[in-house]
Amino acid sequence: MSKAIVDSGYADEAYVYLASEIGKPINQPRVLDIKIKGVKVDINTIKTIANEMLDEIPNLWKRVIKGEYQTG
C-alpha cells in the first residue's frame, strides 16, 4: 500500500500500519492507519487505493508466486 501510494504520486512518503484480528479475514483489518508525508493529500483517493488493495489480499499469494512482489 505504501509503495502504491508513493508510486502514484499521492505522497512523498507513506507508512501503513495494519492490525488484524484473530479469526477475522486479513482483508478486514481491525486497524488500518496510513501516515502520509509530502505532497497535498487527497484522502478519498488514498482510501480508494487502500480499499482496492485490501480487496486484492485473498489473491496476493498468486502474485507472489508469479514474482510480482519482492519477498526477500
Task: Report on this structure.
With 72 residues, the protein is an alpha+beta fold. It has one domain (2-65). Helix content is 36%, strand content 19%. The protein is built from three helices and two strands, in the order H-E-E-H-H. It has helices at residues 2-7, 43-56, 60-65, and strands spanning 13-19, 31-37. The protein has a two-stranded antiparallel ribbon with strand order 1-2. The longest helix has 14 residues, at 43-56. The two termini are 17 Å apart. The model has no long low-confidence stretch (mean pLDDT 87).
Q: Distance between termini?
A: 17 Å
Helix content: 25-40%
Uncertain ranges: none
Radius of gyration from CA coordinates: 13 Å
Count of discrete alpha- or pi-helical segments spanning 4 or more residues:
3
Question: How would you sum up the major sheet?
Answer: 2 strands, antiparallel
Quaternary structure of the protein: single chain
Written as H for each helix and E for each strand, in order along the chain, the element string is HEEHH
For the largest sheet, list the strands in their spatial order. 1-2
The total strand number stands at 2
- Backbone structural class: alpha+beta
Beta-strand proportion:
15-25%
Mean pLDDT: 87
Total domain modules = 1
Query: Overall 3D geometry?
Result: globular
